Amino acid sequence: MSTKTIKTEVNQFSRILDTFPEIRYLGDPVLRAKTSEVSLKEGTEIGKKLGDTLINYRKLVGYGRGLAAPQIGLSRSVFVTYVNDEVQTYINPRIIKFSDEKNLYRELCLSCVMMWADVKRYASIVMQWTDSKGQLQEQEATGTLARLWQHEEAHLRGIPNLDRAEPGTMEFALSDPLQEKLRLV
Ligand SMILES: [Zn+2]
User: Does domain 3-184 have CATH number 3.90.45.10?
Assistant: First the structure.
């Protein structure tokens, strides 16, 4: 591991701090607080804000698949994902089924930026939520989508990924996060 690579990451983090003053980082109490449910109106407004931030973040950094309301300082039950070139808003989500199988993945988070760690999560889940049109949704997710939903939903319960890191796996994130793969446990 070279100090040069770490410095590249530090410089990128510095640009992120300048560009997105609204993003909150580990140590901010809002990230470890349980969020409250929202109305459809408030949920869609927050979803729009989160979606815009995530899209602009991706333009600067080149990755980023999800953002939850506490990460911009709002203790509300809303998150967004960016999958297949589309932003989806999840209002008051609730995971109602969990698979027996779990897997591991080195997770990044916009609220800890430079550090990542293995986190064990369920291989598939079923989640309920209200979408931005006010429709109640219930869907199963597997693979990286199940991973993403669980990471974001945990934010709404005040649990950032590093609080669930497998011991001994926290590291500076110096390789390409887009190359990460799910591993069975
Ligand atoms: Zn996160």
Answer: yes
